[in-house]
């Protein structure tokens, strides 16, 4: 599923452009599209689609990924976007073209255009960041891709240890610019142009959606249902066999039920369960699968085996890859894909943020400050107070006194594994410029930024199309327009979504207030792999560079400590960042051209049984 887009301005840069292309072919890449001074290469078992942008009969650009019609989704229809007449606008005004795509289409696309008058490049990507993209230069050639290639196309990138330390201090920063010099991140919903892609124009932000929505009515329940139906229909286009994850929670149940509602129930639903009672949701999953008319397979998960190979599996990605750490999960999904021949996997990822299952006290602050609500404002405030086990007077004090809300990615004390100190590193651009927005909407936008990790490459996403319809642009925008005090009201969270899809769900899930807990499962996995983690981390690069406190780390890496002490998030983060750092240092790439500006600164055994 890897892609690589190349362009050059002409003249002497043509020779390295041709040399890089020949080297990619020798390394197993395939040429998917060719135009004057522009080419697209793909690799992998499931390469992404590539479309040409044509102006006056010439290929002037390309789009990698899928684009669907926005209006179709909002009408409950799944329709592919037509780009036949798009080339002229892309050639004349690439930033304007990016804005049109953001307004009229949705999908996981990345585009590259060669501007003819100077041979300069312009690159853009979809608002949700569904296909992460990064750019760099080699010998005058501009390259755009999602993963770092080897050979002549490889980026001349170096680790930025200060930035890596910021991520270790606050994992929420991992979704922003990568901790590398010499690489430019194409931020979601933006267009960059110029010789070094330094000129950035913003086409879409979640804050812009919220601000625009404050001037108009928000979608009702039927509109939300219709939009999700349209997204799912679009994401089903081209699918032969479909798997659907059903955890037992609300979000995955809504997706499974929507597949049935559009008359394409999943060919098989899968539920992963663990030995711990709090991590076994088979009863809920069975009820959801029955309503979704989907056969269900239970898959038992034992703690996965942590290995040195698994710890370095994310090496070579531009960003630290937290999705690939659980190698056992990929093993089990790949086993089911091979057995069923499925080519598409639907998940409920993103629903907790999009439907608003978070920071309930922010809802109280917004209600006090006049945010819209349904019914009695006093009753809504009392409900929030009960949810937070707080008095209404403490919510009033918080609203008028103010304090640093939980979405802020600013200065904070370092976590336990770090040496004491504070950080000031760059955060995700979505959380900048949120002044004037309601408190809960700020939290929701910060949650969206963190949730972009679901688009990271994994072995399962390389073997099948991974679909997250709740985290699609039409659904996200619909829920950004709905006030958080309406999305999540009463004494339970995600109340708007529960009501909107109630007739598609079993009552046990629609009315459920609890949620499965994987902390014991993760703790046992880390405890069992303690020896490997000690060897990997205690004398690793993070400890040598002072990113982690070796003495504190050593005191934590004992099975008896890990079973009873919840430091799992910090240890997982340290393990992922250590593998990332080793991978980039091992590349030892030669320097052949100046870095591009605008970048970042400084096997498990399964037990499968039929339900």
Mean pLDDT across residues: 87
Counting DSSP E segments of at least 2 residues, the number of strands comes to: 22
Tell me the number of helical segments per DSSP (H or I, 4 or more residues long): 27
**N- to C-terminal distance:** 33 Å
Main sheet: which strands, in order across?
2-3-1-11-10-14
Please describe what this structure looks like.
This protein is an alpha+beta fold. It has 27 helices and 22 strands. The strands form 5 sheets. It has a 6-stranded antiparallel β-sheet with strand order 2-3-1-11-10-14, covered by helices on one side. Strand 4 and strand 5 (58-64) form a beta hairpin. Residues 406-414, 419-424 and 589-611 have low confidence and may be disordered.
Summary tags:
611 residues, 22 strands, alpha+beta
In short:
This protein is of the alpha+beta class and 611 residues long. 39% of the residues lie in helices and 16% in strands.
Show the helix and strand layout.
Layout: E1 2-7, H1 14-26, E2 30-35, E3 38-43, E4 50-55, E5 58-64, E6 67-69, H2 70-74, H3 87-92, H4 94-104, E7 105-107, E8 110-115, E9 120-125, E10 134-138, E11 141-145, E12 158-159, H5 161-169, E13 180-181, E14 184-185, E15 190-193, E16 199-202, H6 206-213, H7 221-236, E17 242-245, H8 250-261, E18 268-273, H9 282-291, E19 296-300, H10 308-311, H11 327-340, E20 344-346, H12 351-354, H13 360-368, H14 377-388, H15 392-401, H16 439-451, H17 459-463, E21 465-467, H18 473-481, H19 484-487, H20 495-500, H21 507-510, H22 519-528, H23 530-537, H24 541-544, H25 550-556, H26 559-564, H27 568-587, E22 607-610
Parallel strand pairs: 17-18, 17-20, 18-19, 20-21
Antiparallel strand pairs: 1-3, 1-11, 2-3, 4-5, 5-8, 6-7, 8-9, 9-15, 10-11, 10-14, 12-13, 15-16, 19-22
Helix pairs in contact: 7-8, 7-18, 8-9, 13-14, 13-15
């Amino acid at each position: 599923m890897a892609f690589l887009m190349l362009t050059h301005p002409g003249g002497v840069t043509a020779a390295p452009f041709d040399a890089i292309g020949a080297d990619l072919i020798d390394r197993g890449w395939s040429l998917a599209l060719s135009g004057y001074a522009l080419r697209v290469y793909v690799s992998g078992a499931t390469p992404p689609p590539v479309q040409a942008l044509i102006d006056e009969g010439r290929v002037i650009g390309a789009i990698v990924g899928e684009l669907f019609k926005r209006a179709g989704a909002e009408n409950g229809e799944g329709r592919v976007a037509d780009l036949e007449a798009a080339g002229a606008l892309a050639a004349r005004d690439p930033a304007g073209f990016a804005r049109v795509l953001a307004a009229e289409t949705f999908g996981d696309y990345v585009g590259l255009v060669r501007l003819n008058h100077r041979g300069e490049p312009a690159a853009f990507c979809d608002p949700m960041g569904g296909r992460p993209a990064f750019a760099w230069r080699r010998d005058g050639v501009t390259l755009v891709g999602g993963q770092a290639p080897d050979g002549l196309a490889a980026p001349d990138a170096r680790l930025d240890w200060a930035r890596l330390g910021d991520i270790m201090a606050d994992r929420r920063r991992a979704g922003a610019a990568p901790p590398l010099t010499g690489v430019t991140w194409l931020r979601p919903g933006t267009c960059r142009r110029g010789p070094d892609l330094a000129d950035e124009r913003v086409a879409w932000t979640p804050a812009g959606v919220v601000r625009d929505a404050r001037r108009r009515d928000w979608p009702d329940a039927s509109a939300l249902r219709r939009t999700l139906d349209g997204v799912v229909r679009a994401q089903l286009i081209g699918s032969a066999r479909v798997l659907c994850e059903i955890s037992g929670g609300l979000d995955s149940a809504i997706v499974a039920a929507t597949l049935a509602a559009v008359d394409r129930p999943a060919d098989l639903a899968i539920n992963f369960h663990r030995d711990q009672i709090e991590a076994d949701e088979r009863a809920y999953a069975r009820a959801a699968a029955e309503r979704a008319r989907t056969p269900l397979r239970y898959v038992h998960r034992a703690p996965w085996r942590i290995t040195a190979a698994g710890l370095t599996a994310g090496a070579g990605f531009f960003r630290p890859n937290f999705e690939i750490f659980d190698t056992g999960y990929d093993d089990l999904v790949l086993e089911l894909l091979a057995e069923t021949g499925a080519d598409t996997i639907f998940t409920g990822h993103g629903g907790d943020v999009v439907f608003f299952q978070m920071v309930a006290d922010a809802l109280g602050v917004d209600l006090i400050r006049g945010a819209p609500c349904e019914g009695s404002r006093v009753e809504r405030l009392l409900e929030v107070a009960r949810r937070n086990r707080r008095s209404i007077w403490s919510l009033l004090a918080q609203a008028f006194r103010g304090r640093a809300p939980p979405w802020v990615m600013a200065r904070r004390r370092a976590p336990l594994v770090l040496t004491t100190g504070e950080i000031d590193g760059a955060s995700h651009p979505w959380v900048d410029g949120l002044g004037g927005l309601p408190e809960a909407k700020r939290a929701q936008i910060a949650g969206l930024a963190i949730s972009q990790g679901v688009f990271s490459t994994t072995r399962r996403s390389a073997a099948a199309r991974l679909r997250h319809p709740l985290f699609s642009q039409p659904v996200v925008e619909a829920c950004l327009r709905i006030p958080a005090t309406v999305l999540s009201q009463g004494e339970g969270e995600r109340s708007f979504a529960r009501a909107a899809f109630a007739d598609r769900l079993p009552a046990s899930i629609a009315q459920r207030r609890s949620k499965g807990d994987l902390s014991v499962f993760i703790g046992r996995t880390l405890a069992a792999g303690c020896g490997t983690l000690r060897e990997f981390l205690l004398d690793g690069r993070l400890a040598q560079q002072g990113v982690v406190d070796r003495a504190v780390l050593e005191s934590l890496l004992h099975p008896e400590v890990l079973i009873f002490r919840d430091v799992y998030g910090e240890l997982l983060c340290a393990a992922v960042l250590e593998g990332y750092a080793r991978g980039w240092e091992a590349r030892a790439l030669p320097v052949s051209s100046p870095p591009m500006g605008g970048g970042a600164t400084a096997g498990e055994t399964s037990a499968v049984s039929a339900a």
